[in-house]
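4.2 Preliminary Data

To establish feasibility before requesting continued support, the project team ran the inverse folding procedure on a target of 487 residues. The structure was first converted into the token representation described in Section 3, and no sequence information of any kind was made available to the design step. The complete token record follows.
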């Protein structure tokens, strides 16, 4: 069913008063409402355990979500119209009674979009109660927020439970990184430009780095994070999805399954790391007290809610290999961490040096061409090339061809959650994980996690405000490489 301007649409948020809802989802839905992307008959129903009336919920959203919207976008009349579309239903997902009230709150014959912004252990019972209350039909859609499982077995259990009530075409496993403009631009960069595709392979590419760095610590998420760690929280989903887009073969079309088929092949081609490989190919770290953004911050084990002696990693660096013809022999470095010197996400593609240089005797050392794709906080694409310095002689130095996406396009750029929520409304699955993708990612990650547990080594300490343990630099140095910030 195609949703038109006149189609009644109910967007139902489980965890409607949670941090994700008021910080990200509701501001994103307001922006979609402001720019008329949701149709005329959309409503948003927040669900939660608070004993709130609708008025109290609206006041909560007005107070909390308003501050997450840019002042230039806060148009009072449109904001009030958005608030009028809100409703609230008190509901305990483990109890069937509240689902009767939810059904009564929905519009007649509406398309229902269920966003499960809750703990994954509630996904199964939530879907069962939705079905039991007669809230599901062929047009319903469900959005599953990460983490989707703790390991392969739990991910499969979630997938099987949800599949009992929803077809795969109705399931949207969300990874907000796939909603970023620059991530989606990677497809165009790779497959829409003839100068790149012939060289986007071994032996022309020497190495690839993918970094997602955060300046924040564990904050108020200690209860969740200490049982999860950086590998499950970031690598198994965000970084592997970025890797898939960088490394995939050209799909035969932009159809969702054609794109996801190629991403799946990448995941299946990732070389498995056995326990004997871990000390050579992986680094785990945990931040200690230090300074971030000019302020003193505690170490991970001093954070409120973190148990004494915790061995949860807040930093991971990995050297991965994709065993296929395109990427044979190319090391791929994945890195993520908390309490790093700056917040940024980037992809660095380093090309090989020419096989022979006529400039070997000239002053000024030649450096390899590098393509730096910055995803956040500022979106840009930079290509480093060698150029001659002005003057006599042939002294070289690297210069950058810089595409600033912010200035290249003056149109408004939707944030990731807004873009992905619109995709759900319009039935576009391309930027969401398919079941077999999720399970293939866990098949690769599980042996690493199990190996770390078996070895029993504590994460290597690193001072907050630095780029992680020294062992992470040694990891890339063994391939005669440097992390991007050191180049």
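Position-by-position output of the design step:
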């Amino acid at each position: 069913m195609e949703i038109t301007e006149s189609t009644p649409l109910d967007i139902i948020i489980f965890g409607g008063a949670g941090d994700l809802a008021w910080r990200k989802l509701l501001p994103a839905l307001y922006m979609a409402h402001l720019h008329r992307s949701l149709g005329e008959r959309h409503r948003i129903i927040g669900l939660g355990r608070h004993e709130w009336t609708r008025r109290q919920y609206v006041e909560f959203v007005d107070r909390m979500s308003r501050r997450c919207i840019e002042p230039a976008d806060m148009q009072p009349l449109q904001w009030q119209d958005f608030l009028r579309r809100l409703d609230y239903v008190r509901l305990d997902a483990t109890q069937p009674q509240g689902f009767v009230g939810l059904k009564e709150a929905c519009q007649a014959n509406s398309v229902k979009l269920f966003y499960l912004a809750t703990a994954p252990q509630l996904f199964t019972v939530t879907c069962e109660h939705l079905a039991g209350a007669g809230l599901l039909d062929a047009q319903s859609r469900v959005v599953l927020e990460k983490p989707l499982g703790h390991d392969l077995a739990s991910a499969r259990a979630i997938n099987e439970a949800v599949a009992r009530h929803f077809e795969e075409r109705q399931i949207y496993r969300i990874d907000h990184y796939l909603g970023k403009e620059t991530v989606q631009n990677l497809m165009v960069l790779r497959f829409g430009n003839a100068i790149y595709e012939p060289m986007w392979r071994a032996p022309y590419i020497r190495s690839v780095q993918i970094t997602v760095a955060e300046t924040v610590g564990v904050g108020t998420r200690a209860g969740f994070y200490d049982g999860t760690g950086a590998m499950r929280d970031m690598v198994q989903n965000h970084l592997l999805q970025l890797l898939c887009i960088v490394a995939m073969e050209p799909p035969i079309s932009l159809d969702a399954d054609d794109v996801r088929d190629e991403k799946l092949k990448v995941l299946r081609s990732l070389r498995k790391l056995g326990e004997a490989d871990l000390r050579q190919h992986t680094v785990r770290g945990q931040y200690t007290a230090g300074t971030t953004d000019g302020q003193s911050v505690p170490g991970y084990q001093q954070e409120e809610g973190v148990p004494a002696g915790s061995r949860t990693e807040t930093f991971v660096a990995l050297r991965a290999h994709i065993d296929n013809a395109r990427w044979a022999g190319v090391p791929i470095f994945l890195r993520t961490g908390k309490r790093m010197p700056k917040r940024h996400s980037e992809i660095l593609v380093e090309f090989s040096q020419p096989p022979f240089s006529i400039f070997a005797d000239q002053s000024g050392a030649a450096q390899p061409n590098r393509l730096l794709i910055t995803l956040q906080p500022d979106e840009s694409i930079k290509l480093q090339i060698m150029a001659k310095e002005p003057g006599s002689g042939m002294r070289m130095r690297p210069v950058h061809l810089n595409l600033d996406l912010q200035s290249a396009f003056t149109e408004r750029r939707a944030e990731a959650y807004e873009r992905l929520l619109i995709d759900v409304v319009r039935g576009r699955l391309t930027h969401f994980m398919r079941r077999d993708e999720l399970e293939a990612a866990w098949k690769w990650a599980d042996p690493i996690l199990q190996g770390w547990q078996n070895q029993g080594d504590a994460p290597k300490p690193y001072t907050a405000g630095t780029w992680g343990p020294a062992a992470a630099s040694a990891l890339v140095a063994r391939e005669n490489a440097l992390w991007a910030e050191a180049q």
